[in-house]
């Protein structure tokens, strides 16, 4: 589809940026929920095209960042057991646990296998009938259908050596948490386009109305992102509050019903801890009772897990948009992608990694450190 | 992880009881499960996450969006001139 290239068209990008400048009359704080969008915004320099009045703060939509530390420690404990294979999306391997990360487990001889699709983990279980294969099923609504499908497939194939370590989270409860926090500054949201392809956007309409905060379903190309910003700014400037769709080629109000059915066959809503943020009621999905036999937390007796976070890392404040990565004293000095203290510096969706990679805030960080030393 | 990649379905088949497709990502071919998109067929564009096609891209919607955006630009140019 040649037309998709047009969503990177430089002329359109500049026209949209000009239109945003024309429409803005006062300061607005917008949050993009999705870490993939944070990276795209910084990669294309869209933040630098916006007028000074528009401040973008970065949301919690980084799956490995919000996976709670005790579950990472459990994954590490499972991978360290003899006769197990832990399968995971690649981003997770360098996320720091309390003592070490999954890479360190692998280096020490543990079987940790990176998979692209959860179905690859099912295949690994088929090929290794004498080993327990555990898939670390993390992510937001986008990974829920693939993760759920892996269990349906394992059951259909009669596999008894396959289980899931589940850390499945949902966007809307996190938005409630952000908007009801006393520190909240967010006045408008760019909704995560690919989450909405699955779930639709009807469930955001009551949230927009309750908090008086306009929202726009937004895609991932430069033109999509600026269109999302423009539609949100237009609502703010005109005093309108609603949920608009700037990603109509991929998103409908109802979402993908077949994918939702697959999710509901395997998962049900549950409370979840978000790393750095804390417990958010009904913010996750857990396995339904009939799938308890496939729950890795029940299958393995891991004993008590004692977690310990880095005392320096301010990931929780970063993930809620309260602070920017370069406002962390460890940013780009004690904490780098090569030696991360927290998950947002690791992931391809983490805000700290995006600031580091695309050079945002590095000067301020270095300057404040040299000032601090003098 | 939520970064889906758009690709074109070049063939549809069944494997281990699942509906699968071979998807062309600009010359790189990969397999994707299309169980959640019962209506997709060869030639359709889909966005793939974690080995699963989770939505079909609408070319007509894409064209309409671009048309609307070009009109915004054109209006501004009229105002400037």
Q: Quickly give the CATH architecture of the largest domain in chain A.
A: 3-Layer(aba) Sandwich
Question: How many angstroms does the end-to-end distance of chain A come to?
Answer: 57 Å
**Proportion in β-strands of chain B:** 35-45%
**H and E order of chain A:** HEHHEHHEHEHEHEHEHHEHEHEEHHHH
Number of domains of chain B: 1
Structure description:
Chain A has two domains: 311 residues, Rossmann fold (3-Layer(aba) Sandwich); 59 residues, no CATH class. Chain A is 40% helix and 18% strand. Chain A contains 17 helices and eleven strands. A six-stranded mixed β-sheet of chain A has the order 4-3-5-6-11-10, with helices on both faces. Chain A has a five-stranded parallel β-sheet with strand order 2-1-7-8-9. In chain A, helix 2 packs parallel to helix 16. Chain B is an alpha+beta fold and 81 residues long. Chain B has one helix and five strands. The model of chain B has no long low-confidence stretch (mean pLDDT 88). Chain B is elongated and about 55 Å long. The termini of chain B are far apart. Chain B has a single domain, classed as SH3 type barrels. Classes of the chains: A alpha/beta (374), B alpha+beta (81). Chains A and B meet through helix 1, helix 7, helix 8, helix 10 and helix 13 of A and strand 4, strand 5 and helix 1 of B.
Helix and strand layout, with pairings?
The complex is a heterodimer of chains A (374) and B (81).
Chain A: H1 10-23, E1 28-34, H2 35-43, H3 46-49, E2 54-61, H4 63-66, H5 69-80, E3 84-88, H6 102-107, E4 112-114, H7 118-127, E5 132-139, H8 144-156, E6 162-169, H9 171-180, E7 188-192, H10 193-199, H11 205-211, E8 215-218, H12 222-238, E9 243-245, H13 257-266, E10 267-274, E11 278-287, H14 296-299, H15 315-319, H16 351-357, H17 362-373
Parallel strand pairs in A: 1-2, 1-7, 3-4, 3-5, 5-6, 7-8, 8-9
Antiparallel strand pairs in A: 6-11, 10-11
Helix pairs in contact in A: 1-12, 2-16, 7-8, 8-13
Chain B: E1 5-15, E2 18-25, E3 28-33, E4 45-49, E5 52-56, H1 59-80
Antiparallel strand pairs in B: 1-2, 1-4, 2-3, 4-5
């Amino acid at each position: 589809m040649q037309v998709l290239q047009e969503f990177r068209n430089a002329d359109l990008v500049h026209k949209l940026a000009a239109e945003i400048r024309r429409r803005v009359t006062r300061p607005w704080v917008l949050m993009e929920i999705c870490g993939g969008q944070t990276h795209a915004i910084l990669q294309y320099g869209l933040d630098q095209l916006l007028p000074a009045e528009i401040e973008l703060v970065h949301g919690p939509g980084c799956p490995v960042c919000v996976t709670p530390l005790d579950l990472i420690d459990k994954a590490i404990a499972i991978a360290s057991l003899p006769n197990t294979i832990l399968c995971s999306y690649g981003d997770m391997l360098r996320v720091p646990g309390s003592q070490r990360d999954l890479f360190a487990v692998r280096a020490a001889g543990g079987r940790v296998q990176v998979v692209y699709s959860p179905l690859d983990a099912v295949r690994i279980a088929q090929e290794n009938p004498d080993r327990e294969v555990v898939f670390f099923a993390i992510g937001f609504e986008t990974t829920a259908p693939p993760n759920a499908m892996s269990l349906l497939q394992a059951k259909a194939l009669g596999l008894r050596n396959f289980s899931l370590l589940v850390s499945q989270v949902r966007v809307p409860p996190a938005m409630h948490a952000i908007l009801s926090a006393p520190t909240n500054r967010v006045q408008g949201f760019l909704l995560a386009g690919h989450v909405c392809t699955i779930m639709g956007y009807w469930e955001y309409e009551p949230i927009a109305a309750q908090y008086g905060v306009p929202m726009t379903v937004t895609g991932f190309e430069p033109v999509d992102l600026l269109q999302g910003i423009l539609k949100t700014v237009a609502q703010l400037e005109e005093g309108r509050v609603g949920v608009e769709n700037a990603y109509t080629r991929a998103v409908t109000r109802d979402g993908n019903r077949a994918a939702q059915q697959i999710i509901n066959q395997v998962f049900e809503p549950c409370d979840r801890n978000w790393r750095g943020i804390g417990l958010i009621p009904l913010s996750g999905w857990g396995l339904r009772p009939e799938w308890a036999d496939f729950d890795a937390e029940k299958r393995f007796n891991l004993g008590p897990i004692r977690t310990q976070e880095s005392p320096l890392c301010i990931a929780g404040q970063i993930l809620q948009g309260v602070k920017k990565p370069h406002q962390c004293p460890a940013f780009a000095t004690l904490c780098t992608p090569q030696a991360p203290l927290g998950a947002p510096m690791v992931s391809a969706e983490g805000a700290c990694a995006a600031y580091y990679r695309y050079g945002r805030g590095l000067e301020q960080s270095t300057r404040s450190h040299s000032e601090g030393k003098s | 992880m939520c970064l889906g990649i758009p690709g074109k379905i070049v063939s549809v088949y069944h494997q281990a009881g699942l509906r699968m497709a071979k998807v062309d990502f600009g010359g790189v071919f990969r397999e994707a499960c299309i169980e959640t998109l019962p209506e997709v067929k060869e030639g359709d564009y889909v966005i793939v996450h974690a080995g699963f096609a989770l939505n079909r891209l609408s070319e007509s919607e894409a064209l309409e969006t671009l048309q609307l955006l070009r009109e915004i630009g054109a209006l501004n140019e009229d105002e400037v001139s």
